[in-house]
Write a structure and sequence with these properties.
By secondary structure, this protein is mostly helical. Helices cover 68% and strands 10% of the residues. The chain has one domain: Four Helix Bundle (Hemerythrin (Met), subunit A). A hairpin with a 2-residue loop joins strand 2 and strand 3.
Length: 151
């Protein structure tokens, strides 16, 4: 449980470096894709940590191996509104990662990756990706408190 949380923390460190160093010098959609993949990995580890905690507390007997099923199980069984929001955010990131995208203004400050999700156009730029990172860090802090028993 704590190992999963530690892995999530390591992924967030990598995302931090990608945003504040790599993206500064290499403004491409490939960096966006890498950041999104790392955020997904970090949230995967956080979800796994929460499910292990629930299993340890005897709230769950088992949990499925599929990421989407894990997320839905977590959203169903835990009463924290923030965790339900995290699951929705996680599913959105997975859709963004899997959707085909178009590149616009690469190598410029306003580099934009545009994806089409369910008929809606969703744009990812430097400001959005930084907000995604900060949101994931907030979720990490909440989960860390829960796993370490401070909440």
């Amino acid at each position: 449980m704590k190992e999963s949380l530690e892995k999530a923390k390591e992924e967030l460190k990598r995302v931090d470096h990608l945003i504040y160093v790599s993206l500064k010098y290499t403004r491409t959609c490939d960096v966006f894709k890498s950041i999104i993949e790392r955020l997904i990995n970090a949230i995967d580890f956080m979800i796994e940590s929460m499910l292990k905690k629930a299993k340890e507390d005897k709230k769950l007997a088992n949990f499925p191996p599929q990421p989407r099923a894990k997320c839905l199980l977590l959203a169903e069984n835990l009463e924290h509104e923030e965790l339900k929001e995290m699951c929705n955010f996680y599913l959105l990131l997975r859709q963004i990662d899997q959707a085909p995208f178009t590149r616009d203004r690469e190598y410029r400050r306003h580099v934009t990756m545009t994806v089409n999700i369910g008929g809606k156009k969703h744009e990812v730029d430097i400001d959005n990706i930084t907000a995604y990172y900060k949101k994931t860090k907030v979720f990490y802090d909440i989960i860390e408190k829960i796993v370490h028993g401070k909440e």
